[in-house]
UniProtKB/TrEMBL annotation:
Full protein name: WYL domain-containing protein
Organism: Kocuria marina
PROSITE patterns with a match to the protein in the record: WYL
Annotated region described as Disordered, given as residue ranges: 308-352, 661-697
InterPro entries per UniProt: CBASS_pafABC_assoc_protein, PafC_HTH, WYL_dom
Domain WYL positions: 161-223, 542-606
């Protein structure tokens, strides 16, 4: 943004924040309140409204800003005894004491976990709410709190359904949406939402499905329409706990085994979650290794195999001569003189009929997925992407609200620390000295209606120490709003799933946060119930070793799988922090090979050894927040097209821009049938595009997004992993690489041959 444009925007934001502050002071000043016209006359800034309609819109926005910050703007009848009924107009006020923070005090341990929870969000909107909540709680926090630097959970939301669902949960409103289950079957749901939360890297909604008259849990990424929030209200069950529901989602051990042929020296990510094939009956063709993949269902197995593209294949049957005897429970065939030259399979390790049925089911699923991926990619040449102007929704509102929140926080902070040094105060707020002086100058010209010298806020900072006066009502601690408390509570909820955390302290902090918002049911809905110590999440041996290395200042030698390059590398790392995000654990530290900070997923660490004493790296120490987000610019920049099932990719991969597009129908399909949701057999569902008058509105069927990837193989793997839901439009070299990847992927190899 050019400097002059940036300066203009800053002045506009400051003017709006000044008007809002003067409006708040006026609403607090007079218990009987003011009419709209009176406020228009006495609040500086409303004179800039060109006409009555412009003023009305400005006033409605200002009321919404104040309410979102925790000040309940009330509308009361006019108290003019001489006015006729036709002349009566409502008056507005903020009742004194209605916004004050309830009596609550956090211990040092609770204050520490609150600081960690407020720092957890990667979502910008929720991050602002959580930090604003922590600012409001500052008077109630312990000064002895010292947030741990060795562990940091992060919370990211890539599901557009999250915000409307969270709002419906808080307002107890019934919702409607279109949903697809694991098999691809499409249904329309009407749900009373009880709670939302994340577990194992996914977000879930729990509630009462009114169509099925039963309690159900939904994965947000499978909601393929906008969430329609109705006016229908409900009372959630008193004993429901979303935290308890999430804690009860224990991953079941895989019960299916699939044999996969993996190309020698490749498919490292697949090898990481597999083991050598236990039976010699599955002989891999030359240049491949046979591995056994333990999975929960055929679709997840097919997804893993498709992600490896040309480097993985699923055989349908064992080696010739083994299948018949295996089906009969016998041993491998023998020659006339004794055992065959091949290894003899006993009845214990020979594949059973069930094993072969599983193999065929997975092979069919892989073939279907690759077929769908090729068909979808074949339609990409007909896609016309026209970006247009990218709009920043809510940017002005956010900056104005943020500035007003900071002004109010400055008043509260300085009143509690009169005479605080200007430089120290600026550091506390994360702004420059000049920005703090500008804020103090804004406060200096704000005050009660009339704006005479004795009615303005008294601010002085000439000697480098800040003093404020004549703003007593603004200095009172303010209660949390429900959205602010929810953002902080969901950060705390994430801490409950972090191995090695203290759930007792987290639950106590959640209760107090809900009290600060005068909304105790929030904590009951989000917190996990008390449980035995045996039920608490535990660190793996590797994570324990890494945390010990951080604690004792030790360097580690890592054997690390780089998935985007499909290779295992050796790294020497000075670890400084563990990060828990989306159900995964990461270690962040200084990588000596890169001579820079790096983040490593623990489930991709093949080996870990002590490598001596770690060093202190100034750049690492200066990092306030550890990030696991990708670099701002990656080598491969591509335009991908997703359907409604793949819409999460836009957020998850931090798309730089996106736009709705049209995709030509597949051969033999019409535009209408192509746009309809499909059932498990990829057939359009009749009438699925029709919606009830109050039903959910379908999302854009196709969206083009500009996304960066580390390698062309990583992009190609995304296309095959989410087969039929993602395609690539440009650049030409990326399209060519994806098409070659798809054409080289073999869905059903001939036994005994590559």
């Amino acid at each position: 943004m050019p400097p002059h444009v940036e300066d203009t925007a800053r002045r506009s934001t400051t003017a709006s924040a000044e008007r809002l502050l003067n409006l708040l002071i006026a609403l607090l000043d007079r218990e009987s309140g003011y009419t709209r016209e009176q406020l228009r006359a006495i609040v500086p800034g409303y004179d800039r409204a060109g006409n009555q309609d412009a003023f009305e819109r400005m006033f409605e926005r200002d009321k919404a800003h104040l309410r979102s910050l925790g000040y309940p703007v009330e509308e009361i009848p006019d108290d003019d005894p001489w006015a006729s009924d036709a002349q009566l107009t409502p008056r507005y006020r903020v009742p004194r004491g209605s916004y004050r923070l309830p009596q609550v005090r956090f211990s040092a341990e609770e204050s520490a976990v609150l600081a960690v929870a407020a720092d957890a969000w990667n979502d910008a909107a929720q991050d602002r709410l959580a930090r604003r909540a922590l600012d409001k709680l500052e008077p109630a926090l312990s000064t002895e709190a010292a947030p741990g630097k060795d562990l940091q959970p992060t919370v990211a939301v890539a599901d557009p359904a999250f915000e409307p669902l969270l709002s419906a949960v808080l307002a107890h409103r019934t919702v409607r949406f279109d949903y697809v289950d694991r098999t691809g079957a499409f249904t329309q749901r009407t749900v009373q939402p009880w709670g939302v939360g994340s577990r194992y890297g996914a977000w879930y909604l729990a509630g009462w499905d009114t169509d099925r008259n039963a309690e159900r849990t939904f994965r947000l990424s499978r909601i393929i329409s906008e969430v329609a929030v109705t006016r229908e209200t409900f009372d959630p069950p008193r004993n429901f706990s979303m935290g308890g529901r999430l804690a009860g989602m224990v991953r079941q051990r895989p019960h299916l085994r699939v044999i996969v042929f993996v190309r020698e020296g490749a498919g490292q990510l697949l090898r990481r979650i597999a083991a050598p094939a236990p039976s010699p009956a599955w002989r891999a063709p030359e240049g491949f290794d046979a591995v056994a993949l333990a999975v929960h269902d055929t679709e997840s197995a097919a997804e893993h195999v498709c992600a490896a593209g040309p480097d993985a294949r699923v055989p349908r049957e064992p080696a010739p001569g083994v299948r018949d005897d295996a089906a009969q429970g016998g041993s491998a065939p023998t020659t006339e003189g004794g055992p065959s030259a091949e290894s003899v399979s006993t009845s214990e390790d020979a594949p059973t009929a069930e094993d072969i049925a599983t193999q065929n089911a997975v092979a069919d699923a892989v073939a279907r997925r690759l077929r769908d991926a090729r068909a979808f990619q074949a339609r990409m040449p007909g896609v016309d992407v026209r970006w247009g102007k990218q709009r920043r929704h809510g940017a002005a509102k956010t900056s104005t609200e943020q500035h007003l929140a900071r002004l109010l926080h400055i008043v509260r902070h300085v009143y509690a620390h009169q005479g605080a040094e200007l430089e120290e105060t600026a550091r506390h707020f994360g702004i420059t000295d000049a920005e703090l002086v500008n804020d103090l100058q804004t406060l200096f010209v704000c005050g009660r209606p009339g704006h005479m010298p004795d009615q303005l806020i008294d601010a002085s900072w000439d000697d480098g120490h800040i003093y404020l006066g004549n703003a007593q009502e603004l200095s009172e601690p303010v209660r949390l709003t429900v959205p602010e408390a929810s953002a902080l509570l969901m950060g705390l909820q994430t801490l409950q799933a972090v191995p090695g955390g203290d759930s007792r302290v987290v639950r106590s902090a959640m209760q107090k946060v809900a009290t600060a918002a005068d909304a105790l049911p929030l904590a009951d809905a989000l917190a996990a119930p008390d449980a035995d110590a045996a039920a608490e999440p535990r660190d793996s041996e590797l994570v324990t070793r890494l945390r010990d290395a951080i604690k004792n200042g030790r360097r580690v030698r890592l054997q690390y799988l780089v998935a985007s390059r499909d290779e295992v590398t050796e790294r020497h790392v000075d670890p400084v922090r563990m990060i828990f995000s989306d159900g995964q654990q990461y270690v962040r530290g200084w990588c000596l090979q890169a001579n820079a900070p790096r983040t490593f997923r623990t489930d991709r660490i093949v080996g870990c050894e002590d490598a001596g004493e770690a060093e202190v790296h100034p750049r690492m120490e200066s990092e306030v927040r550890s990030s696991i987000q990708p670099a701002k610019r990656r080598p491969v920049q591509a335009v991908v097209v997703t359907d409604r099932r793949g819409r999460w990719i836009v957020e998850h991969y931090h798309a730089k821009r996106f736009v709705e597009v049209s995709v030509p129908p597949a051969p033999g399909e019409t535009e209408d049938s192509d746009a309809a949701p499909r059932d498990a057999n990829s057939q359009p569902i009749p009438g699925s595009r029709a919606r009830a008058a109050r039903g959910p509105r379908p999302l854009p069927e196709y969206v083009a997004a500009e996304v960066d990837f580390p390698t062309l193989d990583a992009l190609s793997s995304l296309v095959t992993r989410h087969a039929g839901h993602v395609g690539v439009v440009s650049p030409p070299e990326a399209v060519a690489a994806v098409e070659q990847w798809l054409n080289s992927s073999c869905p059903e190899p001939t036994p005994g041959r590559p």
